[in-house]
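for ur thesis appendix - AAA-ATPase At1g43910-like. copy paste whatever u need, i formatted it the way the template wanted (i think)
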Amino acid sequence: MASLLNELPSFSTLLAAYGSLTAMAMLIRTILNEIIPKPVQKFIYSKFSGLITNYFSSNFTFIIEDRWQAVYNETYRAIEVYLPTRIDPSTDKLLVGSNDPNNPTAPLKQNIPADSKIIDEFEGMTLEWTLHVRESDKCFIPDKKCFHLTCKKTVRDLVEQRYFPHIAKMAETILSKRENLNIYTYNQERSRWESAVFKHPATFETLAMEPKLKQSIMDDLDSFMGRKDFFENVGRAWKRGYLLYGPPGTGKSSLVAAIANYMSYNIYDLQFQSVRNDADLRRILTSTTNRSILLIEDIDCSRKISIDRVKVKDKQEKEGDSVDPGVTLSGLLNFIDGLWSSCGNERLIIFTTNHKEKLDPALLRPGRMDVHIHMGYCTPAVFRKLATTYLGIKDNKLFGCIDDLIKNVEVTPAEVAQQLMIKSDDPEAAIQGFIEFLNMKKDEVGEDVIQEEEAKDTKEMKDGKQSKKHDETETGSIYLT
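the 3d part is after this line
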């Protein structure tokens, strides 16, 4: 035993050996730092640490990114809806706020901030969620978002087979019971849709429109909602295009709001000024959800969209190929009726314009704008609806006089509503004031202009130039293509 102890190295010898090894390690580290670039070092370290972690760890992580290839990830959407319902006192931090400007005292909405952990229990499994956000260094590229779901390796298959389908069903139930609709606008600087609560009071009940036209629109919407199998059987995308056209103030925006409330669809209000090019347009449009309305107002004001494609091509040839065309008509058509139209279901695409004649014929054909709704000037029936709404009366001895004037004066429902609102607390005075307003407009137009228009309409009727497909009235028509 004594001889064995004598053979062991002394403490000073061990200390000297340790010092030599430390010096050698520092020398090797210095040489490696000089020879191997920093990015390569980080890559080697991440791979090495990852291998060690995977070997010794008993956990498995699912990563769900916000986009899946070229479209928005529907699994990510479902998780966004589901996870706020799993917030409990153990959550370490929360994102709270409100986007309802009409009710500042409404209860705060809760959401998941970046790097916050949410614990969920499902069928005896403990599951940990974390939202990760990677900010982009380019303003036109959106931030990268993804959820991490950590579970035990032993329950990985169970999570895939039972937990993810459970999230999808719960999200669908939550969305079907939503009380508030949202209206979205696209933020070009942040490259994402931003929402606000949509609480427009317009409904088909309050809408001032010819009863026949109103019922036709409601019947068409009901038919669209119940024809999922039909669209699949005939090989068409489950969508419907509407064109609302007519003079300003005839109720186009109110009709859009009434449709949204009737269908319980969110609205995506797209302004082409915020879109850079066709590729950007595809990414923006594929970020919209199912059961929604894509609204493109005053499409005739977007010159590159409304004018004929031949003119655009001629202009590009004159200015040179280097000119960026921006958003083109072809890019829009490819989404609403091309191969990209299949990226989504149960959608309404609504265009509005004051000048239908300025639109390219390619936009107007069936499959793109399936329903053409003419929003015209006020008629006696529309006036009575407005009088009931604003004055609370259904009949008056002066209504006959107003009927005769409205038939000969072009006045929009918006103008009628404004006149009735001035003295809404005194119906008699309001009606008298409205008659004076109509007479003033009649004098401005002049009897000769009115007679000329009447003669022109009569001649067109005799010549049979009006389309038999139109069920025209002075207040509007619906044209189903």
